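RECORD TYPE: inverse folding
INPUT: structure tokens
STRUCTURE:
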């Protein structure tokens, strides 16, 4: 089962906190079936269920919130056109993620805008800081800013796996399916991404790699 997670900084590198997400509900299965039969209202309900989470993913890959909104809208347009071909072998959100990530990648390939990673501090999956000490807040703020810079500087082939696996908390199989690569390739890219982030944090970089 996949979960919702967030990147956090530990003494030996970057770790992921994960909270299990509920499985596909009976109601959602019913909505998918009705949408496949042409029920627009059922599809609109699916949009309401998944829009916020999908937007959060593409926002981490798009240059601006406006572009992320456009990508999210285009994703659901494409999903409606293809809903009859959704075979249920994967979770619906995995299918939607793949459409959304592919749309964001198309925009990058067209050279319309450079992609970036949204501030991890703005991520809804971040764990709360329960410390009341001002110096502790300052320390965590500095670490979070360094982590944000390091992740944003990752090339897209490494950044996307890190976002999906360590920030969104998807399984290796789900992330690989979304990106259209093998699990072995996903693990290799993720290992490299974590190493780049860890190295950047260790020496105070995070402005990009040559």
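DESIGNED SEQUENCE:
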């Amino acid at each position: 089962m996949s979960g919702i997670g967030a990147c956090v900084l530990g003494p030996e590198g970057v770790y992921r906190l994960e909270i299990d997400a509920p499985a596909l509900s009976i109601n959602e299965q019913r909505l998918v079936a009705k949408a496949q039969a042409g029920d627009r209202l059922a599809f609109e309900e699916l949009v309401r269920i998944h829009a916020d989470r999908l937007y959060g993913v593409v926002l981490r890959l798009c240059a601006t919130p406006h572009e992320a909104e456009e990508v999210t809208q285009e994703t659901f347009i494409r999903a409606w056109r293809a809903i009859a071909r959704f075979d249920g072998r994967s979770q619906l959100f995995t299918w939607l993620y793949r459409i959304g990530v592919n749309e964001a990648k198309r925009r990058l390939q067209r050279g319309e805008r450079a992609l970036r990673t949204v501030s991890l501090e703005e991520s809804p999956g971040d764990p709360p800081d329960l410390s009341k000490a001002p110096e502790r807040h300052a320390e965590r703020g500095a670490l979070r800013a360094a982590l944000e810079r390091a992740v944003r500087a990752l090339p897209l082939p490494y950044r996307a796996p890190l976002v999906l696996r360590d920030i969104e908390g998807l399984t290796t199989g789900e992330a690989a399916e979304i990106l259209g690569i093998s699990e072995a390739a996903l693990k290799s890219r993720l290992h490299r991404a974590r190493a780049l982030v860890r190295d950047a944090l260790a020496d105070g970089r995070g402005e990009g790699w040559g």
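NOTES: The mean pLDDT is 76.
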